[in-house]
Amino acid sequence: MEYLENKHAFEELQETRVNDVNEIVEPNKCEPALGMLFDNHEEMFAFYKAYGKQEGFPVKVRSTKKGTDGIVKYATFAYGRSCKSENKSANALKPKPNVKNGCDAKIGGCLNEDGKWVLRTLNLQHNHGLSPDKARYFPCNRRISASAKKRIEMNDCSGIRIAQNFNSIVVGASGYENMSFLEKDCRNFVNKTRRLQLEEGDTMALLKYFQKKQAECNGFFFSIDLDEEDRLKNVFWADSRSRAAYKYFGDVITFDTTYLTNKYDMPFAPFVRVNHHGQSILLGCGLISREDTETFTWLFEAWLSCMSDSPLLGIITDQDREMQKAIENVFPTIRHRWCLWHIMKKVPEKLGAFKEREGIISSLLSTVYDSLSSDAFEEAWIA
């Protein structure tokens, strides 16, 4: 422990050990039973996750369904490796390992008239062996506590290697069996944190540039999101031309984050629309640190504020669940559609096992791209 430079650091490590041990959730010893009541669906999922940890299997949220008021009314929680087993490798000689096994173990619940969640469906039978001793390694059970995150960041800033960094937490927790996360999780957390640590002067340079542009043009808009330690997390900006174009071409936009064009590996997120000349026009853009619901919500709210809170009619994105949740939060009445390019890109992969693969793809492409009306598309689709 030579990297712990003083007594204060050692005391912080001891505090980390205590907090980590206390924050490990003990499995609930009760078995699921029909008619059980919960305050909300999150509590029901937490109960099933604790039961899965006790018995030795991972869990996941299979499906949720909202009512017209936007509140979740139905939910199903299942074994984490359920669904049909299939090989997703395009190369038959190099099949990718598949952990899906078709197990149908699950629980399901719904919101009753009293505002409680009641367990309505139940299947505790598994078609595979269970591993209680390995339950803490399942992704659904791994988490890094706030105190451990602080310790990891401090050690990383001091130049301590990740392996040694993780081992210090293990020592503080009195052994691997008391850990709620793995070295892999520690490494992933450090990599995400480093994204936020811009080189000295970069954040100020960006702020000064935006202030300069705002002084030159009154219509220039920017918003910067900082973390608890005042480090740059996310940024959004749009010039007066983009804001003016939105008034004429802002009914439907596309949003994509598949661009990684900077040395910090932060996804570039442009808002794009097509004008009456068929040209793509930029309606604002951002750099984001993470692709999660919280980050997307911040970005969408910043963009909407920039556009004077004028509502959209539609938005086109890829099939990202976190992005979908953020859109539901910020644009509750919008029409959300998936990008055709992303869908068609997956067609050859999904039809890889069919003998008539080429003919099906050819017909599908013709139906999608050559139909000039909805009626023509429906007729070609049925044919």
Strand content: 15-25%
What's the pLDDT, averaged over the residues?
80
CA gyration radius, whole angstroms: 25 Å
The biggest beta sheet reads: 7 strands, mixed
The overall strand count is 12
The order of strands across the largest sheet is: 6-7-10-9-8-11-12
| Element pattern in H and E | HEHEEEEHHHHEEHEEEHEHEHHHH
Task: Determine the structural class based on helices, strands and strand pairing.
Answer: alpha+beta
Alpha-carbon distance between the termini? 71 Å
* Amount of helix: 25-40%
Quick structural summary:
39% of the residues lie in helices and 19% in strands. With 383 residues, it is α+β, with helices and mostly antiparallel strands. Strand 9 (268-274) and strand 10 form a beta hairpin.
List the helices and strands and how they pair.
Elements: H1 7-23, E1 37-38, H2 41-55, E2 59-66, E3 72-79, E4 106-111, E5 117-123, H3 146-157, H4 162-172, H5 183-196, H6 202-216, E6 221-226, E7 232-238, H7 240-249, E8 252-255, E9 268-274, E10 280-287, H8 293-306, E11 314-317, H9 321-330, E12 335-338, H10 340-345, H11 347-350, H12 357-370, H13 374-382
Parallel strand pairs: 8-11, 11-12
Antiparallel strand pairs: 1-5, 2-3, 3-4, 4-5, 6-7, 7-10, 8-9, 9-10
Helix pairs in contact: 1-4, 3-4, 3-5, 4-5, 8-9, 12-13
What are the defining features of this structure?
alpha+beta; 383 residues; globular
